[in-house]
Amino acid sequence: MKNLLILATPRSGSSALYQAIASNYFEYHAYYEPWSKWNHVLPQGEHIVKSLINHKDHWGHIISAYDKVIFISRKDKEAGFQSYKQAHHEKNFVDKYKPNPDIPEVPGIREHYMKNHERLEAEATDKIWYYEDLFYNRIEIDKLIRHHGLKIRHADRFYNYFKPQYAYEY
Hints:
The chain is built from seven helices and five strands; from the N terminus they run βαββαβααβααα. It is α/β, with parallel strands linked by helices and about 170 residues long. It starts with a strand and ends in a 10-residue tail after the last helix.
């Protein structure tokens, strides 16, 4: 593998997947959301990139430049939206999510979140993996590893990123 792109919708477990893969490919440069407005860098050398679908307007030329692309999203879009709404409200996309039903919905945020799913589905050139499967089914993790031909050196370390206790609470 020369370059790997993880392209995701927000709140889909893509950071856990990125960390799990980067921890097994330590000789690669790892770029976390390099096309976001907060962290704009140019990925170089052999590398792993994690990015969100909303970080670029067009992905075709970028997707074709990678020899492996993993697409990840949520099956339960409503649960993903609630997590996104709360993270957006609290300006905290890093800490573990515990639902707070009292957070008001900002106009337009639901449409923005759902549009991310539509965009990922339109851009995907391979199977879309789902948060709910990866965090609750080791067999799905094994399928992802085989499907993408990932060479996992430290399986226990890799699987540790997907323990159900690390999943967002519903």
